[in-house]
Amino acid sequence: MIEFRQVAKVYGHGENAVHALDGVDLVINDGEFVAIMGPSGSGKSTCMNIIGCLDTPTSGQYLFRGVDVGSLTRDQRALLRRNHLGFVFQGFNLLKRTTALENVELPLIYRGVPRAARHARAQEALEAVGLGDRGGHTASELSGGQQQRVAIARAIASDPAVILADEPTGNLDSHRSQEIMELLARLNHDRGITVVMVTHEPDMALYARRSVSFRDGKISSDQNQPGHAPAGGA
């Protein structure tokens, strides 16, 4: 599904150039749950931004389902992002004074889904994350763990092929973090959604089937997690 071929990303020029990614080869198959790890400045966030079509490589190729994303226009990349990718952020990124249901409906509005259909899909997504009875509550009335569940519901409402989760438990206590990770693992297992998660927490990475570690812009290790069978299919 996702393939990097010698992907490099350089910020700046000359002596001030920063090689965020340095010739990275990476394949993520359909249905995998991959944790991307590494210290600050290792390249993991740049990798995630390129996968999410929020940034483009300086050189090399990023292919999504065989399509060279670098050959797409800005508008085409936006469509790929809108139609195939769901995002979950550390800071939830919810509209605080807007209800949970309305927050989940937002990406469906951008996709032009009719009101009744998007309402039903948003409600279904909330039920999938265990918040079917919280649709009328504003984000500010929900706990941190509940807000992250709403964010995950928003990500899955548009039926994405991939969920990109950037430090999804970074603002949560250990109990809520466990709940969120179990939810992501269940969505991966039951719905077959590919999950790519950036985390600096080794105990959270254990929920993934595979762990890819970055250091100095390169992949330093890539291994299946103990107790997890590798996912098949590209």
Question: Could you characterize the architecture of this molecule?
Answer:
The protein has 234 residues and is α/β, with parallel strands linked by helices. The chain has one domain (31-56, 73-224): 3-Layer(aba) Sandwich (Rossmann fold). It contains 7 helices and 10 strands. It has helices spanning 44-51, 74-84, 100-110, 115-128, 144-157, 174-191, 202-205; strands at residues 2-11, 18-28, 33-37, 59-64, 67-68, 85-89, 162-166, 194-198, 210-215, 218-224. The strands form 2 sheets. The chain has a 6-stranded mixed beta sheet with strand order 6-7-8-3-9-10, sandwiched between helices. Helix 3 (100-110) packs across helix 4 and helix 5 runs parallel beside helix 6 (174-191). The longest helix has 18 residues, at 174-191. The model has no long low-confidence stretch (mean pLDDT 93). GO terms for molecular function: ATP binding; ATP hydrolysis activity; transmembrane transporter activity. This is ATP-binding cassette domain-containing protein.
